[in-house]
Amino acid sequence: MTKRVAIFISGGGSNMVRLLEDMVGDHPARAVLVLANDANAGGLKKAADLGIETAVVDHRPFNGDRAAFEAALQAKLDTVDPDILCLAGFMRVLTEGFVAPWEGRMLNIHPSLLPKYKGLHTHARALAAGDSEHGCTVHLVTPALDDGPILGQAKVAVQSDDTPETLAARVLTKEHLLYPAVLRRFAAGDPTPVML
Description:
The protein has helices spanning 14-22, 43-49, 66-78, 96-102, 122-128, 164-187, and strands at residues 3-9, 29-36, 54-56, 84-87, 106-110, 133-140, 150-157, 194-195. The protein is α/β, with parallel strands linked by helices. The protein is globular.
């Protein structure tokens, strides 16, 4: 049975676009909604241009009331009844109250080789540590930040002249390969991690 997927974004949605472009033909999943927490997120138009329903739940009017914001997110999800939720550059930390009902069905992509460098500024942190390799991870979301079971990783070599920006660009290229591969395998029920 084809899995229904909702994708959360906050910005341009480049990973979202790659997921949508991959979900064609005999893919075991199809997108039913792209939801952003910012009406100006560039990814909304890209999703609409690809024929995907979009929605916005702006976090700002909730004035820090995370429970109310998350209830509004869930209300939007309830209208499309997804099986899987993919976070693709969604820049809001979700509470246990939202995550718990989705546990085992919510994926996130993070720009580091977890468990290294949870949180922000991962590329600068990898360079500061003198790492020889860096990369990205797709994992299941749990209430702990960037801490769920790993579904796939892709590595890049760190170059001697790398800046956080050049390293980020190379990692993003890998993200665009890794996330679609993981979603395809996950939606098909294959638990084998994807390693690129």
